[in-house]
């Protein structure tokens, strides 16, 4: 027997139940991982709430963790029992003491990276990796806008931009979060609860605006984001923290200056094992050399049984950096 989180109906954090289950043996192309630390991601709240419906209910939750391999399926060739591994793109069910994961979604963990660092950074770091180097290639000295810059993805983005020498303008919901984003390497910050995003971006860029906006806040910032873009700029809408962007009239891209818009997802960029190895190596190298520090505040390490509290904190905007569940 093992313990996991499951939910039987979509809803608020209260639908999450901590219960026992009998883990299945891994399929031929899977390994079984005993999770040591589990990543909490905003996307998990979309799955729980029904914004991203699961295939069936009751369902497990979560797609990211790090731990030790305890069993391997008959066709697995690159991973053995005892390996330290991390994953960020499993089928739902990572909020669990053990989870079966496809070999193709497993990254081997370098000795220099702890389970907690890996579980707190893999999905968020792979996201920053494809956003900064594939969706658009950020350049040294390039000024760009990144929303929710003190969050899990945001604090890695600030540090990665800094490592490249790019100038990230980070939006945040409080002055404390502004200090955290600045400390992580944001070039400038905007507190969008009391400052006008577009006016501040115009000031910071001497009226030029920016060529790319990375927007995971969604509904609440969509229009401001478009208004911060230069002619032919790129709007990267990659999340829904304030609700999804819907009903867009494409004419708005013409009116705002022949803009481009994309709605990417990590699974559209990191699909093969090679792509996973490449992205995770880039991330883990930066963590191992101290260029990226993974920020996991002590009060954001929740016991697995308290997954509902972790979701509440995330949705109440009470977190910064990454949150973990500890089995
Ligand atoms: N497309 C992809 O490939 C991909 C992959 C990973 C993550 N994401 C997206 O990236 C975003 C960040 O993910 P994360 O796990 O690192 O979460 P997070 O940034 O740690 O938490 C979300 C943050 O969004 C901000 N926010 C703004 N409006 C909000 C609202 N109405 N309700 C709640 N939060 C609001 C809050 O920061 P402030 O208090 O500073 O406003 C909050 O802390 C999420 O939108 C997620 O869906 C997308």
UniProtKB/TrEMBL annotation:
Q: Name one GO molecular function term.
A: quinone reductase (NADPH) activity
SUPFAM superfamilies xrefs: GroES-like, NAD(P)-binding Rossmann-fold domains
Q: What is its EC number?
A: 1.6.5.5
* Coiled-coil region: none
The alphabetical list of record keywords is:
NADP, Oxidoreductase
InterPro entries attached here? ADH-like_C, ADH-like_N, ER, GroES-like_sf, NAD(P)-bd_dom_sf, QOR-like
This enzyme catalyses: 2 a quinone + NADPH + H(+) = 2 a 1,4-benzosemiquinone + NADP(+)
Please provide one cellular component term from the Gene Ontology annotations of this protein. cytosol
Q: Does the keyword Ribonucleoprotein apply?
A: no
Superkingdom of the source species: Bacteria
List each copy of the Enoyl reductase (ER) domain by range: 11-325
User: What family does the database annotate?
Assistant: Belongs to the zinc-containing alcohol dehydrogenase family. Quinone oxidoreductase subfamily.
- NCBIfam families linked: PRK10754.1
Q: What is the name of this protein?
A: NADPH:quinone reductase
Q: Which gene encodes it?
A: qor
């Amino acid at each position: 027997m093992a313990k996991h989180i499951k939910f039987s109906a979509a809803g608020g954090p209260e639908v999450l139940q901590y219960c026992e289950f009998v883990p299945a043996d891994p399929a031929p192309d899977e390994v079984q991982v005993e999770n040591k630390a589990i990543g909490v991601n905003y996307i998990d709240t979309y799955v729980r709430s029904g914004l991203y419906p699961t295939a069936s209910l009751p369902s497990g939750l979560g797609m990211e963790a790090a731990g030790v391999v305890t069993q391997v399926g008959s066709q697995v060739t690159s991973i053995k029992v005892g390996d330290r591994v991390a994953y960020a793109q499993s089928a739902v069910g990572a909020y669990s003491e053990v989870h079966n994961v496809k070999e193709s979604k497993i990254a081997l963990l370098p000795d220099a990276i702890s389970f907690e660092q890996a579980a707190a950074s893999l999905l968020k770091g792979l996201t920053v990796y494809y956003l900064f180097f594939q969706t658009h290639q950020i350049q040294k000295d390039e000024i760009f806008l990144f929303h929710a810059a003190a969050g899990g993805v945001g604090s890695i983005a600030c540090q990665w931009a800094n490592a490249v020498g790019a100038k990230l303008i980070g939006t945040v919901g409080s002055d404390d979060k502004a200090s955290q984003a600045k400390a992580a390497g944001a070039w400038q910050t905007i507190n969008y609860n009391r400052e006008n995003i577009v006016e501040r971006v115009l000031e910071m860029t001497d009226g030029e605006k920016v060529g790319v906006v990375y927007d995971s806040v969604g509904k609440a910032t969509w229009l401001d984001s478009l208004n911060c873009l230069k002619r032919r700029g790129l709007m990267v809408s990659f999340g829904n923290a304030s609700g999804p962007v819907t009903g867009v009239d494409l004419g708005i891209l013409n009116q705002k200056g022949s803009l481009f818009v994309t709605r990417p997802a990590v699974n559209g960029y990191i699909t093969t094992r090679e792509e996973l190895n490449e992205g995770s190596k880039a991330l883990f190298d930066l963590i191992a050399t101290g260029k990226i520090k993974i920020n996991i505040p002590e009060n954001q390490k929740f016991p697995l049984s308290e997954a509902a509290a972790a979701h509440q904190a995330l949705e109440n905007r009470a977190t910064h950096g990454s949150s973990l569940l500890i089995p």
